Amino acid sequence: MRIGVARDVTSQIQAEDALRFLAHHDPLTKLTNRTLFYDRLVLGLSAAHRHQNGLALLFLDSS
Q: Model confidence over 5-58: pLDDT tens digits?
């Protein structure tokens, strides 16, 4: 005798995706936030170091 249980987890996956997006983006402008920037900066620095390359960062301040 076999017993199976099936559940539709589509809404749970969509909610997790929405939370992941909100963790890295501004909810109003949908632009990336500091957390995602820092994560990508660390990845870029690590890749530059690993491949013995340089990395350039351009900072523009409008004030």
A: 888 899 999 999 999 999 999 999 999 899 999 999 999 999 999 999 999 999
Domain tally, the chain: 1
Determine the Cα–Cα distance for residues 39 and 41; give it in Å rounded to an integer.
5
Query: Over 90: is that where the pLDDT of 3 sits?
Result: no
Residue with tokens 């909610």: 15
The domain in which residue 31 lies consists of: 10-50
- Sequence-distant (6+) residues with CB within 8 A of 28 are none
Q: Is 27 helix (H, G, I), strand (E, B) or coil?
A: coil
Say if CB 10 and CB 4 are below 8 A apart.
no
